[in-house]
Amino acid sequence: MTIQWFPGHMTRARREIQAKLKLIDVVIELLDARIPLSSRNPMIDEILQSKPRLVLLNKHDLADPAVTAKWVAYFADRGLQALPVDSTNGNQLKDIASRCRELFAAKIATQIRKGINPRAVRALIVGIPNVGKSTLINKMAGRKIALTGDKPGVTKGQQWIKVGSEMELLDTPGILWPKFEDQQVGMRLAATGAIKEELLHISDIALFLVRYLASHYGSSLQERYGIEKLPEDMKDTDAVIAIMEEIGRKRGALLSGGRVDLEKASLTIIREARAGKMGRISLESPDDLR
Ligand code: GDP
């Protein structure tokens, strides 16, 4: 579900997270591995302040592993541990728990020194809508948790979920808003399914996607749609649209009179890219920032 964010919503979401911070030791910041910066809340450092934090690059199974490795280094340079994960399988749960425990280690050491039995590390998951918060919480819980609607301000009695004997997780995640005032960010969010595609023109999203794919994953795009030649200049919008039309013709997305139905072609391209039909792709790389 996509939330319509208003300034009031943002203030409330922020307050809710800050209230939860008092209860926990470590924050698990969930990002989309395909678009780590675009799926990040613009005020995250201010909201979380000095709370120890583990970054999870979720949906790693859909992202380009080489680019994800660069993102891990990017976050390490900024003092943050980032772990690529696929929340739909539970393989990395132990790793997540042990990283959280490491981040909490200083406190555990103090407890042991004082002769107190160290308690479980308490964690909170935060992230923008659709990044995979519920999926991860359910995996960690080992069952389906009935989550309250994906709306800030809808609270219920929150509970601790035990993850093994060394970790406890708050069952209600912190929901953050994305950086939607930036159009490029909006394109990446729509292309990956983080926001509803109807919020933007479908053909604009596909144009953005084809341009990015042609520049970074040219051979996968060519192979998928049997395209012989890609545009030499990716800035040439007409040439990129010609590729979209070629894909439309090949997929039988035609209007009466034989013209290409660009909307339909666009939807096909977006759906197939999201489903991984062109392989594992990332739509943002630290290399693009240079
Ligand atoms: P939330 O809004 O943050 O709670 O997101 P959800 O947990 O509802 O996940 C949104 C969509 O992403 C669902 O269709 C999930 O199945 C899917 N999803 C979540 N995590 C992963 C992942 O690691 N890999 C893949 N391929 N899909 C995921």
Account of the 3D structure:
- Helix 8 crosses helix 9.
- The protein is an alpha/beta fold.
- Strand 5 and strand 6 form a beta hairpin.
- The longest helix is centred in the first third of the chain and has 15 residues, at 7-21.
- The protein is elongated and about 80 Å long.
- It has 11 helices and 7 strands.
- Bound molecules: guanosine-5'-diphosphate.
- The site of guanosine-5'-diphosphate has 16 residues, from helix 6.
- It holds the Pfam family MMR_HSR1.
- Required for a late step of 50S ribosomal subunit assembly. Has GTPase activity.
The name CATH uses for the topology of the largest domain is: Rossmann fold
Q: Which sheet architecture does the biggest sheet show?
A: 7 strands, mixed
SSE string? HEHEHEHHEHEEEHHHHH
Task: Give the overall average pLDDT.
Answer: 91
Organism: Paenibacillus agricola
Family: Belongs to the TRAFAC class YlqF/YawG GTPase family. MTG1 subfamily.
Subcellular location: Cytoplasm
Protein name: Ribosome biogenesis GTPase A
